[in-house]
Specification:
Elements lengths: L21 H9 L5 H11 L1 H21 L4 E9 L23 H9 L2 H11 L5 H6 L4 H10 L1 H11 L12 H13 E5 L5 E8 L2 H59 L6 E3 L5 E3 L4 H28 L8 H23 L5 H90 L6 E5 L12 H26 L9 H5 L3 E6 L7 H6 L4 H13 L10 E6 L6 H14 L4 E5 L7 H5 L7 H5 L5 H4 L1 E4 L2 E4 L8 H5 L3 H12 L2 E5 L8 H5 L5 E7 L5 H13 L4 E9 L8 H8 L1 H10 L1
Parallel strand pairs: 7-14, 8-12, 8-13, 9-11, 9-12, 13-14
Antiparallel strand pairs: 1-3, 1-6, 2-3, 4-5, 10-11
Helix pairs in contact: 3-14, 5-9, 5-10, 7-8, 10-13, 11-13, 12-13, 17-18, 17-26
Length: 752
């Protein structure tokens, strides 16, 4: 049995940080704290060929599309749209003078320049539906349009009627050619306002420079004509509207004035003086006799209320006896008599005549004081009751006058309502009548739209722009490559970053092993101490020395979640590293289902561990010497049930016995997933090393395997990340090991 004193207690999934080397324990803590910029640079380095391929494909596609695209010519007409229009007659038109100052004025003009009705005017002005040059300039075959309209005439006409707007009041259907021409114009026209000015560039694009310039110029001309026509149309509509409103207001003025006179007659209201209410309306003055009396009575009521409150306070204080002079004098006399009596009583007996006289005098003064206090209290109560009656009388009179004043005010309010209605109707009628007379001449004004520069046929095509397309393709390719890299990074479930081992698995990273090239023999690489793989295992051995108090555990096993993750090769490599340091090592192949240690070392498995577990106690006959300081106990013959053999204590006894004869006992176990061998074997060793292949098994699978080992109480001390691709990893481990651990290797060999 293994000596329990050599075991170091540790958690199932992570070794104590105090027992780890400074670089290992820190790496676990800082693994998830790498700068974001470093993370991005690592991703760019690992995915550089993907990024380059996607970006290059986007640039090449843009180049091909640009070269194959037919050149387009854009003609520009510049116009000025003023916010204020010249008014020849100096009479305001239908629109307000401040209408053009609104923030949405220019946005309205931009929308009007792109309106469908304007496109219809241009089509009909230039007869574009019958212009073959127009169709050729836009790459449209008019014969195909005619065939489509003949095939489905009802649908085409229905769509045309729904999409088209009337040019005049008489509605007419739009032909298929005209509808397509309108849609083509709207697709190729663009309005580009010049910021900070009232200038607008109207651009039109087509394959023909002459056609582009012609349409741009006619478009602006039709825009000016449409603006003028809209003003005349609005003026005519306004006059028709005002005629109807004048008839209505004339009747309302007559009705409201008649109602005003009738109400004044019924209520007896005679207007002597009137005040202007600020809006030109007359109001009745409210300073009547009742209102004046009400103000006087209200002032008396306020004074009476104050007197009643004062009298009530005196009544509660017993008439303020403290301030009464008579009562104060009587109390003063009694005090003098009482003092004199007190002096006599000191010298004489109570029956002394002078003392009897003073006692009678004091009794008379007490009676007088009581009578005076009663008189003062009665007077205060009577004053309070009188004040209360006066207050109630005044309050009643105020209430009566208030009703009278309110009645007068109600009459005045109703009268003012009639007065305001009559005045308002009269003002509206007068203003509309004046406006009706002015509108006839208001439309005589100059247009607020002026052409600054007419369109000229362009000499160079506006598109395609090779440099712009290449730049856009470069940006789009970069964005697409970034998205693809993001998807690739997010879809990778394996563990390929050594710095994330502690964060993902909860156990420290003992070291990482680079991938073995396909043409190389892995056994030769691990046996040669000058190779990068050998250097990596030397580093792992150094990290393993810090997992227990006595250095490298006397007995430890290597286990993985799935087969072919580098577990057996790692066991052999650690045995070779320890053997080169002068340590006697026994390598036990406990993978009875798929043994590989004998194949790596070029020997056999005729006898081995299975023989011992089956009852063969001749341990010496089961061990083979394969290297200097390295012995091997192969798996032995195949057995039908390996789990039953591991369920006994013989493996525990074997490791305890061999730990006394060898410096280290290394056990190569079967994988965890799907088998019961690994948890049973872990009970026979001091430490367990978890081996994971980089990028192969998902983190969920690795975590599941570790949880299963932890449930069995396995003393897991750390993990080894194998088959790390240096081209896609975050660190160049091969070079790092060659430079970082060469000096340590020499020191360890000297110490050995």
């Amino acid at each position: 049995m293994t000596d329990s004193t050599n075991l170091v207690p540790m958690r199932p999934l992570a070794a104590p940080a105090a027992l780890l080397p400074p670089d290992l324990s820190a790496s676990g803590e800082r693994g998830g704290m790498r700068p974001v910029l470093v993370e991005y640079l690592d991703v760019l380095r690992r995915r550089k060929w993907v990024i380059l391929a996607v970006t290059l494909a986007a640039v090449m596609a843009a180049l091909v599309i640009t070269l194959l695209t037919r050149p387009t010519y854009t003609a520009t007409t510049q116009v000025q749209v003023s916010r204020e229009q010249a008014n020849v007659t100096n009479v305001q038109g239908v629109e307000s003078e401040n209408a053009g100052r609104d923030l949405e004025f220019y946005q309205t003009q931009y929308e009007l320049l792109e309106a469908r009705s304007l496109a219809e005017r241009v089509v009909r002005s230039l007869k574009l539906d019958r212009n073959e040059d127009f169709w050729n300039a836009h790459g449209v075959d008019p014969a195909a349009i005619d065939k489509s309209s003949l095939a489905q005439p009802d649908q085409v006409n229905a769509r045309a009627r729904a999409a088209s707007a009337p040019l005049t009041d008489a509605r007419r259907s739009v032909s298929a050619r005209e509808r397509i021409a309108i849609e083509t114009l709207l697709k190729n026209v663009s309005v580009n306002p010049i910021r900070g000015s009232s200038l607008i560039d109207l651009d039109y694009s087509s394959y023909d420079p002459e056609m582009s310039a012609r349409i741009a110029n006619v478009w602006v001309d039709e825009f000016i004509a449409q603006s003028i026509a809209r003003k005349f149309d609005s003026t005519a509509e306004a006059r028709n509207f005002l005629e109807g409103r004048l008839d209505e207001l004339r009747a309302k003025v007559e009705q409201s004035e008649r109602a005003l006179v009738d109400f004044a007659t019924q209520q007896g209201i005679i207007t002597l003086t009137s005040d202007s209410g600020g809006q030109g309306t007359a109001q009745i003055r409210e300073h009547t006799l009742a209102s004046e009396n009400l103000q006087g009575l209200n002032a008396q009521l306020i004074a009476a209320t104050g007197e009643r409150v004062e009298a009530q306070a005196l009544a509660r204080n017993s008439g303020s006896a403290q301030t009464n002079t008579t009562l104060a004098r009587l109390r003063e006399q009694r005090a003098v008599s009482a003092a004199e009596l007190a002096e006599l009583m000191v010298q004489f007996e109570p029956g002394y005549p002078r003392a009897l006289a003073l006692e009678n005098q004091i009794a008379e003064l007490d009676s007088a004081i009581s009578g005076e206090e009663a008189r003062i209290s009665r007077a205060a109560d009577e004053a309070f009751l009188a004040a209360q009656r006066r207050e109630a009388e005044l309050r009643s009179r105020v209430a009566g006058l208030s009703g009278q004043v309110l009645s007068q005010r109600r009459d005045a309010i109703q009268y003012n309502i009639f007065q305001r209605e009559a005045d308002t109707n009269r003002q509206l009628y007068d203003s509309l009548l004046q406006r009706y007379k002015e509108i006839g001449v208001a439309a005589v004004s100059a247009s607020n739209i002026a052409v600054i520069d007419t369109a000229q046929p362009p000499q160079r095509p506006s598109s395609p722009n090779l440099l712009l397309n290449m730049a856009l393709a470069l940006v789009a390719g970069t964005i697409g490559a970034g998205g693809l890299v993001f998807l690739l990074e997010q879809s990778t479930e394996g563990l390929s970053d050594p710095s994330k081992v502690h964060e993902a698995l909860g156990i420290p990273l003992l070291g990482s092993v680079p991938q073995v090239p396909d043409h190389e023999d892995p056994v030769e690489l691990v046996a040669d101490p000058k190779t990068e793989i050998a250097e990596s295992y030397i580093a792992i051995r150094s990290s393993l020395a810090f997992t227990t108090t006595q250095g490298v555990p006397k007995s430890f096993m290597l286990v993985s979640s799935q087969p072919a993750e580098g577990k057996s090769l790692s066991a052999l490599a650690l045995a070779l590293v320890l053997g080169r340091m002068g340590k006697r090592v026994l390598l036990i192949d406990a993978d009875l289902r798929n043994p590989s240690a004998h194949a790596y070392l070029g020997t056999h498995r005729k006898v081995g561990l299975s023989n011992y577990l089956a009852g063969n106690d001749q341990v010496g006959a089961l061990i083979q010497n394969v290297r200097p300081n390295i012995d091997l106990m192969a798996s032995g013959p195949s057995v039908p049930s390996a789990a039953e053999l591991f369920s006994s204590d013989r493996l525990r006894e074997l490791t305890a016995r061999m730990a006394k004869e060898y410096d280290h006992v290394i056990v190569d176990s079967a994988p965890v997933i799907g088998l019961a061998d690994a948890p049973l074997v872990s009970q026979a060793v001091e430490a367990v090393i978890f081996v994971a292949e980089a990028g192969r098994v998902s983190v969920r699978g690795l975590t599941s395997a570790l949880e299963r080992m932890a449930a069995a109480g396995s003393p897991i001390v750390g993990a080894i990340l194998t088959k790390l691709d240096q081209r896609s990893s975050h660190y160049g481990y091969g070079y790092s090991y060659s430079y970082s651990y060469s000096d340590r290797l020499e020191d360890e060999r000297g110490a050995a």
